[in-house]
From TrEMBL:
It is an enzyme of class 4 (lyase). Belongs to the uroporphyrinogen-III synthase family. Keywords: Lyase, Porphyrin biosynthesis. It catalyses: hydroxymethylbilane = uroporphyrinogen III + H2O. Its EC number is 4.2.1.75. It comes from the Bacteria. It comes from Exiguobacterium marinum. This is Uroporphyrinogen-III synthase. Gene3D superfamilies: 3.40.50.10090. The lineage of its organism: Bacteria, Bacillati, Bacillota, Bacilli, Bacillales. Pathway: Porphyrin-containing compound metabolism; protoporphyrin-IX biosynthesis; coproporphyrinogen-III from 5-aminolevulinate: step 3/4. Pfam families: HEM4. PANTHER family: UROPORPHYRINOGEN-III SYNTHASE, CHLOROPLASTIC (PTHR38042:SF1). Catalyzes cyclization of the linear tetrapyrrole, hydroxymethylbilane, to the macrocyclic uroporphyrinogen III.
């Protein structure tokens, strides 16, 4: 969360608590294929592991933040779906890639792989692992006073699940994948912005609490 995003929430009269619920670490696994035509990236967390790849390829990014992270490393992003999900990304790639194109999917160990079946030549490359961070007893107790719970990934929902008896507010999920994870563990209200970005999520909260 940036300082400006935090300020927007605080301008709505909210006290903001930023609690990282996951850590990531690189696997340092080599790419499973030397030559490929497309690189698919569905999380900005994967970008640091791509430092040694050629830049002379087509790149598909899941959303704005991942696109910016890739461009900062010298990649040119050729494709980004209007809906920031892995499913939408693979669907759009299926429409533009040649049937002979080789696709390298750089992902975290918890990423959804079912979309890979949409394309004939996809190589799976797990470049980082997700490690949950446990809430402290104090943070667990704080959930009782939380009115808006912003979650940015299913992994964050998983980390919160053991402590949901402390929470009775409204969930704000960054996209439909995270929303599904929330609905599997909670019957409380869930709000999702039309555009799956942090700024849109914060705007959604601001509208509800201003």
């Amino acid at each position: 969360m940036t300082a400006s995003q935090r300020a927007l929430l605080e301008a709505s009269g909210l006290s903001v608590h930023h609690v990282p619920l996951i850590q990531t670490r690189e696997t340092h696994a080599p790419p499973p294929v030397e030559r490929f035509d497309w690189l698919v990236v569905t999380s900005q967390n994967a970008v640091p592991a791509l430092r040694d790849l050629t830049r002379d390829i087509h790149v598909a990014a899941v959303g704005e933040k991942t696109k910016r992270a890739l461009e900062a490393e010298g990649f040119t992003v050729s494709l980004m779906p209007e809906t920031f999900t892995g499913e939408a990304l693979f669907q759009q790639l299926r429409d533009v890639a040649s049937k002979d194109d080789i696709v390298l999917f750089a992902r975290g160990n918890l990423a959804n792989t079912s979309h890979m079946s949409m394309l004939p030549h996809v190589y799976d490359w797990v470049v980082y692992e997700t490690i949950p961070v446990q809430l402290t007893p104090e943070q667990q107790q704080q959930l009782e006073t939380v009115k808006a719970l912003l979650v940015l990934s299913p992994s964050a929902v998983d980390a919160l699940t053991p402590h949901l008896s402390h929470f009775n507010g409204t969930w704000y999920a960054i996209g439909e994948v995270t929303e599904r994870a929330v609905r599997q563990v909670s019957t409380l209200p869930v709000r999702v912005p039309e555009c799956y970005t942090m700024d849109a999520l914060i705007q959604c909260v601001g509208e509800d609490f201003s």
